[in-house]
Amino acid sequence: MPELKTETPHTAIAAEKASRDRRQRHQLRTFLPELVSLERMLAEAPPQVSSRVVERVEVAGLTLPLYRVDLGSRAADAPALLLVGGVHGLERIGSQVVMAWLQSLLSRLHWDDALRGLLDSVHITLLPILNPGGMYLNQRSNPNGVDLMRNAPITAQDRSAFLLGGQRLSPRLPWYTGRPEQGMEPENLALERVIGDLLPGRPFSVALDCHSGFGWQDQIWFPYAYRRRPMRRIASVMALKLTWEQAYPNHDYRFEPQSRHYLTHGDLWDYLYKQINKVSDGAFLPLTLEMGSWRWIRKRPRQLLRLDGLFNPQVPHRHQRVLRSHLTFIDFLLHAAASHHNWLPEGERESMLREAAIMHWYREPH
Description:
40% of the residues lie in helices and 17% in strands. It is an alpha/beta fold.
């Protein structure tokens, strides 16, 4: 009689774990391919690139990591570039743009001596997918139903747009701010920790948060969103805008304070900007890239039939065009950070540019 094979408890547990891991990897490839691509990219990255998990998010039986990626100078007083994507889970193109730039950078590190020299003088930090739970669920908010861009402890000083400016009625409605007594969501707390660890003590730092939204044109927004008066470093924003336009006069971006469009409660970058100003004398410029999705919809109206079609290009050649079209601006920000001493205004020039910025953005025409 043939001997029956028996499975030991340890073997059964290992088999069950392997089966569960396969199911989870299949779920991630299906619902969150951006995370799979990012982990593959980091596994193949050169040794000068470091990565770590700064938060973990539970959703649908999965534990999703929130990755921080660092490279460049380790000097505490080196200027810094911070890139953030995926704050809104529906806007996958934001994460994809950040990852496309990171992939380009990592590829160039193998052969580009000029890039290696540049990274000796500037630090780069990336949070490519800030809201992995929302992206997995294909929703704007995080798994708790909170809009991360409306979740900071800061209140609009004037009347905000109904619902759009942030609402506390229900997490089932868009733009839910969360309850103030509960504090900020874990994803935002992770970003706050990264900024608190990264930026104080640096002479200059710039952040770019990549989104997509309704509009015909790609826009660069800057604080404030909670008030219509200019930010403290408005002269530096004007100097950066002029420097960009002189170097790339045929660009297609529109620079504006977000308050020119609408006021919001709980704006994340308003809050973080004010927090950094309390502890650091260096210039910090938080920018938001709003990619205009109406152009994609106009060329393919049936995208309106899909929720993600409202915010992401669906046709492959348009998707590729978007991924490459913003690399130049991110490269510019990297060079601008490294060479901030050549364009950042001081003294009389700062006063002149501040007045120019106020005239350009904050004084209504007669």
